Amino acid sequence: MPHLVMSPQLYVLFSTLVEEASGILYGPQDQQVFASKLTDHVLDLGYSSLLDYYYRLRYDDPDGNEMRRLVETLVVHETYFFRELPPLIEIADHLTALVKQRGHARVWSAACASGEEPYTLAMLLDERGVLDQVEIVATDISAAVIARAAAGRHSPRSLRDGHPPAIAARYLEASPQGVIVSPRIRGAVTFSRLNLIDADGVQRLGLFDAILCRNVLIYFRDDRVLSVVEHLAKMLRPDGLLAVGVSESLLRAGTSLVCEERGGSFFYKRAS
Ligand SMILES: C[S@@+](CC[C@H](N)C(=O)[O-])C[C@H]1O[C@@H](n2cnc3c(N)ncnc32)[C@H](O)[C@@H]1O
Predict the structure, then answer these.
(1) What is the pLDDT of residue 165?
(2) Residue 26 is part of which domain span?
(3) Does ligand 1 have an atom closer than 6 angstroms to the CB of 21?
(4) What's the gap in Å between 140 CA and the centre of ligand 1?
(5) Shortest CA distance to 80 belongs to which of 160, 185, 158?
(6) Which of 91, 141, 219 to probe ligand 1 with, by most ligand atoms within 8 A of CB?
(7) Ligand 1 contact, 247 CB (< 6 A)
(8) If you measure from the C-alpha of residue 107 to the centroid of ligand 1, how many angstroms do you get, rounded to a whole number?
(9) Quick one: which of 39, 109, 248, 261 has the fewest CB in 10 Å?
């Protein structure tokens, strides 16, 4: 099998293309992993030159299908049930209050990976007796991970120490082979593929009472974070809440949204 070497110049060319297509920023520290995943993919496609593959992406991929395939091989889908639970509990309580007021609510998990985040929210809503009144939309840039999410079958690593045992036992069937989500919870979430930097696609989803965009903005440049967040903000209802990951902050990026603390967790809202 031929051996392909990615020079620093090629790394800049490829990583710039990937950043334009997905928002994901690759720095010098990522070069080795990026080069290894990309060269495996390029060899699988039968290319013997990285530059030829670059030209294919740059000039011969009009519908973006090959770029989508490449991004699939590069993205990191780390997630697990009950991850960063306190903000999810706050969101579940917020949606429950809205259902009691007006009979329905909508929430979006905007980079849901294999679905553990929206499924956790669905369990919390079912415990509060409002699951049937809440529409849960879940999207990710990766079609492969969305297919895994919709199947509701997860690796043993998706359930970690510290999970709430009662709720897990009620909705998840765990064995050494993996974790299966109960049909009721699986049926409550609608999955589809969506790239967060596709502003028109974001707009087509409509308005939400809460948006979860957690542990994905860390991969974006600050100006990209700002533009994505501005698009998300337009999809929030006036009192809607945006949650980012606990180690992410929009204030650092200079957002126009206002930050609000609820029960020790931080959320962003449109300024009134
Ligand atoms: C680390 S996971 C976070 C999953 C979940 N939100 C959580 O906090 O556990 C990041 C996810 O973001 C997705 N992602 C990366 N860039 C994206 C983009 N431009 N649009 C949508 N999803 C993206 C990846 O495919 C991956 O599944």
Answers:
(1) 79
(2) 8-74
(3) no
(4) 6
(5) 158
(6) 141
(7) no
(8) 16
(9) 261
Per-10-residue mean pLDDT of the chain, 272 residues long, equals: 85 97 95 96 95 96 96 95 96 98 98 98 98 98 97 94 85 94 98 98 98 96 95 96 94 87 96 84
Specify the pLDDT at position 1.
Answer: 60
Stated as kind and residue range, the H or E segment containing 262 is: strand 258-262
Record the tokens describing residue 71, joined without a space: 């991004």
Give the DSSP letter string of 92-118.
HHHHHHHHHHHS-EEEEETT-TTTHHH
Spatial distance between the Cα atoms of 144 and 76, rounded to a whole number of angstroms: 12
Measured in Å, how far apart are the chain's first and last C-alpha atoms?
Answer: 61
Q: Which of 136, 140, 244, 265 to mutate to test the pocket of ligand 1 (most atoms within 8 A of CB)?
A: 140
Contact (Cβ atoms closer than 8 angstroms) between residue 127 and residue 134: no
Q: Is residue 171 part of a domain?
A: yes
State if pTM tops 0.85. Answer: yes
List the structure tokens of 202: 């974001």
Q: Is residue 3 part of a domain?
A: no
182 and 127 in a common domain:
yes
How far is ligand 1, taken at its centre, from the CA of residue 270, in Å?
A: 23
H/E/C letters for each residue in 216-244?
CHHHCCHHHHHHHHHHHHHCEEEEEEEEE
- CATH code assigned at 128: 3.40.50.150
Ligand 1 atom at minimum distance from 220 CA: 16
Cross-sheet strand order for the sheet of 208-213: 189-193, 134-140, 105-109, 208-213, 236-244, 265-269, 258-262
CA 83 to ligand 1: nearest atom: 9
- If asked whether residues 23 and 138 sit together in one domain, one would say no
Q: 103 CA to middle of ligand 1, Å?
A: 30
